[in-house]
Amino acid sequence: MSARILFTPAELMAATGGQVRGDVRDATGISIDTRTLAPGDAFFAITGENSDGHAYVDRALAGGAAVAVVAADKAEQMADGPLLVVPDVLAALTDLGRAARARSTAGIIAVTGSVGKTTTKEALRLALSPEGETHASAASYNNHWGVPLSLARMPREARFGVFEIGMNHPGEITPLVRMVRPQVAIITTVEAVHIAQFAGIEEIADAKAEIFDGLEPGGTAVLNRDNGQFERLAASARSKGVGRIVTFGADPASDVRLVEVALDPRCSVLVADVMGTKVTLKIGMPGRHIVQNALAVLAGVHLLGADLALAGLALARLRPPPGRGVALELALAGGTATLLDESYNANPASMRAAIDVLSRTPVGPRGRRIAVLGDMLELGSEGETHHRELA
Predict the structure, then answer these.
(1) 241 φψ region: left (φ > 0), alpha (ψ -120 to 50), beta (else)
(2) pLDDT tens track of the chain, all 391 residues?
(3) 225: CB partners within 8 A, 6+ apart
(4) How far apart are CA 306 and CA 333, in angstroms?
(5) What is the gyration radius of the CA atoms in the chain, in angstroms?
(6) Are 161 and 187 in contact (CB under 8 A)?
(7) Which of these, 9, 26, 29, 119, could form a disulfide with 5 (CB 3.0-4.6 Å)?
(8) CA-to-CA distance for 23 and 66, rounded, in angstroms?
(9) Cα–Cα distance measured from residue 272 to residue 294, given in angstroms and rounded to the nearest whole number
(10) What's the rounded Cα separation, in Å, for the pair 216 and 180?
(11) From CA 144, how far away is CA 322, in angstroms rounded?
(12) Does 118 share its domain with 33?
């Protein structure tokens, strides 16, 4: 079976305003990295801080790329093609992402938050997939190149799209969410992450609330009612014209409410009330923080009209993304050890969650629980306080 066409040459030209050189074929995928490029991909030669994609154009074409998208000021140094020549490669990728969004009829969810974005995105992908083709951002592609790349890769036939949006500074979410234009915007939580770039946690909340700037008319904000910044986020949503706010959490007033939970070292079982419907499910990851994220997922599934029972069954297959709680069994002289890999990132919220999971992990009669902790960065003047609070 041949791969589906993602963009024809004419569509690539129309979206980017570029000019074709050589025999450009239909693109079946989008790539910015020759190490993962598949035959038929359109290769975008993005210039980054550490490398210039134009240096890899020959490798991309030799690997079967349908076309290389290159900057006009570097095109003369290239072979005859197949090339799509544009003024700016990253801008062209952004334009292509917008074109993919414009043609899509999918139900779209955007996810942001201080922690839990990637796991929530992956859980939504699993939960929605039984209802139809679900496209989701790869890995943690949530920045100024990751979001347009993820949009550009969305098949026109997709029924659902799930996009992760991140930020380190104020003003970064607004342009990204205006590309994504979700019907549902989820903020997992607001914590003291990247706080060195902000005057306080309230400013972090305001930056996260930028996700409402791109919400489609009639769209819904999904907020964590248990979070200390809930009222500020809800007020921001209303001030930006969001007509519907759905809440999740253990708070009795939550629209998606945690009723019961059993925390196991390898999974969690919970009962939730989803706007009047009781749902019992098992999540294939441990931790109260994962349970909280699952409530947001159930809200998103319900709001897009997908089946809650199928979503609950699918979440039993949820597994940790790399570096976010993967359990590795190690053979040692005289026994074994379980390594919980939480190495992807470190901030006060993720550290507390990891330590909580560690505390629930069983050990043998003479076993020990050992926490190997690194520095938590970008905490500014509050760094020492946050480190001491973990002791």
Answers:
(1) left
(2) 568 999 999 999 999 999 999 999 999 999 999 999 999 999 999 998 889 999 999 999 999 999 999 999 999 888 778 999 999 999 999 999 999 999 999 999 999 999 999 999 999 999 999 999 999 999 889 999 999 999 999 999 999 999 999 999 999 999 999 999 999 999 999 998 878 889 999 999 999 999 999 999 999 999 999 999 999 999 999 999 999 999 999 999 999 999 999 999 899 999 999 999 999 999 999 999 999 999 999 999 999 999 999 999 999 999 988 888 898 999 988 888 999 998 888 888 788 888 888 888 888 888 889 888 888 877 787 778 878 887 7
(3) 247, 248, 249, 251, 253, 254
(4) 50
(5) 22
(6) no
(7) 26
(8) 9
(9) 10
(10) 9
(11) 22
(12) no
| Closest of 354, 300, 346 to residue 325, by C-alpha | 354
Tell whether 62 and 179 lie within a shared domain. no
For residue 299, the tally of other CB atoms under 10 A from its CB is: 25
Please say whether the beta carbons of 86 and 14 come within 8 A: no
Q: Write out pLDDT tens, residues 203-234.
A: 999 999 999 999 999 999 999 999 999 999 99
Token digits of residue 116: 């839990």
Task: State the Cα–Cα distance between residues 326 and 304, nearest whole angstrom.
Answer: 30
Residue 2 half-sphere exposure toward CB, CA atoms < 13 A: 7
Torsion of CA 241, 244, 246, 247, to 10 degrees: 50
Reading the block at residue 247, the tokens are 């809440």
| Among candidate residues 55, 89, 123, the one where a domain is terminated | 89
Choosing from 89, 113, 131, the residue where a domain stops is 89
- DSSP, res 65: -
Instruction: Give residue 338's domain range.
Output: 326-389
